[in-house]
Amino acid sequence: MVVMAMERGPGAALKAKFPWIVGAVSLGTLLEWYGFYLYSGLAGVLTVQFFPSGWEHGVVYSIGIFWTGFAIRPVGAVVFGYIGDTIGRKFALTLAMMTMGGASFVMGCLPGFAGLGWAAPLLLVLCRLAQGMAMGGGYGGAVTYIGEHAPDGQRGRYTSWLQTTATLGIVLALLIILGCRFGFGDAAFGNWAWRVPFWLSGILVGLSIYIRQTFEESPLFERLKQQGKAAANPVKESFSDLKNWKLIALALFGAAAPEGVVWYTGQFYAMHYLTTVLKVPYLTVQVLMMIVLTCAAPLFVVFGALSDRIGRRNIMTLGFLLAAISYWPVFSWMAVVKGSPFLLGILVFYLVILVALVYGPVAAFLVELFPARIRYTSMSLPYHIGNGVFGGLVPLAAVWAATAFGGPLYGLLYPIGIAAIGVAVSIAWLPGRSDTVRLWDEVGGTPPRVPDQP
Fold it and tell me: What is the pLDDT of residue 61?
């Protein structure tokens, strides 16, 4: 039986098996992403359920509600970051998960427009905002928690397991939605069974919270508190210091924003492009995306581990550069081979390789960029602005550019531009080898020894 207590002395071994900690935290984060992305897969049903029948603006408002979850993520990053840098990583992480699970479960219980009128979409907005707040706090907590446990020189390897969870969260959401649709039938699914994935999200997140309660606090944060070095007001310390603002700006424009647009272009925009522009059948696209994303998920760990050897910046910058120069031809080729699911799958797989290049190392990079006393707050803000705002704008910016310039390929100008900015900023100003940072030097101690490493 695995013992979950951890010794606190310098150089003490983690009695809990570290791979178990990584796996359990990653599983919980996957379930959070699953809950967060359920809305995208159910947007059509939610439009029918929560807006007047036949209302011409229902689809637009439903999409708007979906993106409120992205817009609020930076606020969640600051709120939960404050809690995580003052009370503790574990408490903030648990609170974020409770918020996500509760909001998802309530979403599945809300009466529709027929029962509550305009109060129904209003409550849906509130639930979506709660999901966004939770996602803004939960991811930063998970990355900080694992990053502060991980041995120096292997931080990319271990945090990269977390980086698989966002992509696998999409896969899980699509899989369960399709399973419910086929299992209950289209009529029952449109009537009531669309609620089942939301209920399942709440139950699974609750189980993950129970598992995480067996863990101790981050040993580095505990040492920080024992030495009286924990921040009294991490928000003030993060945002009143010009030097830290420079780090936040570098993290945003040199890593998080270009990573965010590459992530959303390679997965969400690719799916949108196949279904709405190329008119590939919906079911074909869903199955293709699930297969490709599942096959590509190990690459996040491959590139995360590789970043321990050759540097985070080098791998991320390669991904930004390839995105900037290859998006236009790749999406052009999709139109040529749209009749072949196999060839489309090859092209989408290439796009997800770019996602893995930029996303696999970024968690470890952000952990190493900021000091421990304000790490949770400082790293969460640029990450969620980069992903929630810059990345979240990919579909809207793409539609606008395609309309303004007269062609669907012009929708790629936004992600290409942000990726190019990432190349310039990362080469000019990001540290070449942040993987050499020794986190425990901040508290003058020796990191816990991690036995049984896989």
Answer: 78
